[in-house]
Amino acid sequence: MKKSYKKNFAKNILVYSLAFSFIIISLSVGYYFFKKQQLDYKKFQIEQEEKNKEAEKESYYQFCADEAEKNARDLLKKKIELLEKSGGSQYQTYKEAYEKGLHLRDDYDNYFNNCLEKYGLNK
Question: Domains in the chain: how many in total?
Fold first, then answer.
């Protein structure tokens, strides 16, 4: 009777240790995949934030370009008015440029750069 008891005890120990090992391995694999999923989600969030920042930056550039064009055209119109009153030599050239929807590049660049600096962006 003692021998069969020892045999059954040894078998039970083996079965229990195998079951326990299987549970530990399963939990470890599950934990690994859980952590991997968390890291993938964090990476996805960071990528989305970067895309949003880039889109926001692009919208500022477009806004500044539109604003600079409008301001440069307004400034050209004021220059035309001053040249008309003072009889400046560039009056006709500026007037033709304004009528074609153009503006002075230097004025545009100054307004554009000022706008970018206002929003903390570089050219």
Answer: 1
